[in-house]
Design brief:
Layout lengths: L1 E2 L2 H7 L9 E5 L6 H10 L4 E6 L7 H4 L3 E4 L6 H13 L4 E6 L2 E4 L8 H10 L4 E11 L14 E4 L4 E6 L5 E9 L1 H5 L12 E7 L30 E5 L1 H8 L15 E3 L4 H6 L10
Parallel strand pairs: 1-4, 2-3, 2-5, 3-4, 7-12
Antiparallel strand pairs: 5-11, 6-12, 7-8, 7-11, 8-13, 9-10
């Protein structure tokens, strides 16, 4: 299905919002667009809504499987405004959002669907799931000057840090952390301070009054926590070429970065087991 505007979608596309989990993919450019959509369709989302300009090209068979909404995903505030409109239009269902060249991984996602995972998460009285954005990057920037190479992807195996998150008075917030690492940490001189965090609440259950903020947190504090008070919960990862793509497309940084590789770079195996073994996702009580 194709919709001319977000308004058109909200008027006529209610069938796509009838049952979750739903995925929302925001295409900032055409890089890895088909691959991103296929990856998330394979995870078992009930509906996939893709927001992109009219000129972006999609494979015809792939286009038949998604709900395409014509929209430019810039400035970045447009994405958050659109998510909030979808939240209010469809309360009470699980939702997920990402950008093109990003891929969701959760524990055992090769054999279990996203719906099964969220059913368990709901039974643990959780309405949101912490996700870490794990930066992917091309092995060889001479061959892949935009930093994107799914078949030769690398990522950092170490160098991830958690910092206590504080309220405006300086008091630490309960069960909330600011996470850092990856390319945003190693090349922080080229990254605005407010964009360096790698934590994102990418999976959440919509409800009336819920709003996502432009720092990827929500106006409901419990949605921003990494676990419940009594035990650890599952976490997910969004493996993303977005930072690499930005660093190599920006004239202020591209010439300072001949390679993203360092001593702790390892090949990405496109496997949840690799992420579990490195502690980048957690299975919690789900075995």
């Amino acid at each position: 299905m194709q919709y001319e505007t977000p308004d058109h979608f909200l008027r006529t596309g209610q069938a796509a919002l009838a049952k979750g989990p739903i995925a929302m993919v925001f295409a900032e450019d055409e890089t890895e667009l088909d691959g991103t959509l296929r990856h998330h369709l394979n995870l078992g989302f009930k509906s996939l809504i893709a927001f992109m300009p009219a000129e972006f090209q999609l494979d015809d068979k792939l286009a038949e499987r998604i709900h395409r909404v014509t929209m430019k995903c810039a400035p970045r505030s447009v994405v958050f405004e659109t998510i909030n409109r979808i939240i209010q239009a469809a309360p009470g269902i699980w939702m997920y959002y990402c950008y093109n060249a990003e891929y969701l991984f959760f524990p055992f996602c090769e054999t279990r669907s996203v719906g099964e995972m969220l059913t368990f998460h709901s039974e643990e009285r959780r309405n949101a799931m912490l996700s870490h954005v794990v930066d992917l990057y091309a092995d060889d920037l001479n061959s892949f000057p935009n930093g994107v190479a799914p078949d030769q992807a690398m990522f950092d195996s170490t160098g991830y840090y958690a910092h206590a998150r504080h309220d405006p008075t300086g008091q630490p917030l309960e069960r909330q952390l600011d996470m850092s690492g990856g390319l945003r940490w190693r090349f922080e001189d080229h990254i605005p301070y407010e964009r360096r965090r790698i934590d994102r609440i990418a999976l959440f259950k919509s409800r009336k009054g819920l709003e996502i903020l432009q720092d990827h947190t929500f106006n409901e504090p419990e949605y921003n926590t990494y676990s419940c008070p009594w035990h650890h919960n599952m976490t997910a990862a969004i493996c993303s070429f977005r930072a690499a793509k930005a660093l190599k497309s920006n004239a202020g940084s591209t010439f300072d970065i001949p390679s993203f590789r360092w001593r702790n770079s390892v090949p990405f195996q496109w496997s949840s087991r690799q992420l579990l073994d490195l502690g980048l996702i957690e299975s919690g009580q789900w075995f």
